[in-house]
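# nightly structure sweep
# worker-07 picked up a monomer target from the shared queue
# config: single-sequence mode, recycle default, output format = structure tokens
# input follows
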Amino acid sequence: MKISYAVIAAALSVSTNALADATRPDSHAPISVMGDHVHQAGEFMFSYRFMTMSMQGNLDGSSDISAQEIVTSQANRFANPPIMPPTLRVVPTKMTMNMHMLGMMYAPDDRVTLMGMLNYSEKEMDHVTFAGPMGVSRLGEFTTKSSGIGDTTVAALVKLGGSHEHAWHATLGISLPTGSIDETDTILTPMGTQLSPRLPYPMQLGSGTYDLLSGLTYAGRENAWGWGAQWRSTFRLGENDEAYRLGDEHKLQGWVSYLVNPSLSVSARLAYYDRGNIDGIDPRIALPVQTADPDRQAVERVDVGLGINFLVPTERYRVAFEVNFPLSQDLDGPQLETDWYVTLGVQFTP
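# output follows
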């Protein structure tokens, strides 16, 4: 399940004084880009981001697949008649996720900026259950929910070099396993009973592992135009307490911005996102639904984002917005497809 997606990792950025000019609305990248800039010695910055994502309908690879096709053609890896049916019998139809992110940056000197981020997620997934071990008779619908603190990220942003108009940076950080991986909720089984098992992987709140964060960022600017590119990866550093680890994540993105006036800039962004399947399996997640299968979690997606940055006249607050849509998706499916996601943020430098 493409949820979230990874919205809370840190990346490294480098900047000259010109590129770090906080009096321009385009001194930061689009709001969906994390860790895009550094600060001068002694500076603080606080930020709040709200991200909401909508997913609806299923893809197998890049092709649409209906709920009826899923329950008649997709094998259930947990099949064990008569307890477990041979094919999937529960199909997710829609998922929404809201994430609140609090960040802080502090530069102990001109070369290094420290960054930390906390997040709180709210997830909701709608399902349809099909009756019995086979057929396309719908038994009913149900919704599962989970919410809570996610994993916490900390990173060092170190300047690598640059000039008046160009700058580079690279990241080294870690994600701490503060998010829950044992969330439960009530489901409707194909036999018409209600149980409260451990929820499948996309509905959990964290990875359960310490994860290495790394990245490289480039930024440039000339007159009213700005541009940049960033690579960011998350590497899982072992297996969690439930005998699995999430797939590694990689993101490559580039953006361009234009300064409309001293208080307003607009931007466009193109991003490639890749996530691997899960290695291992939680023995308590064994259900006839695609989200319980570790081999149905991989994602390749290309997104386009359109954004706007507004600098409040005091030059201490920046308000930013970006809306994103997938251009292409290739999923180890069936999986829910991403329809869109939106990020709204406020950044404050005291």
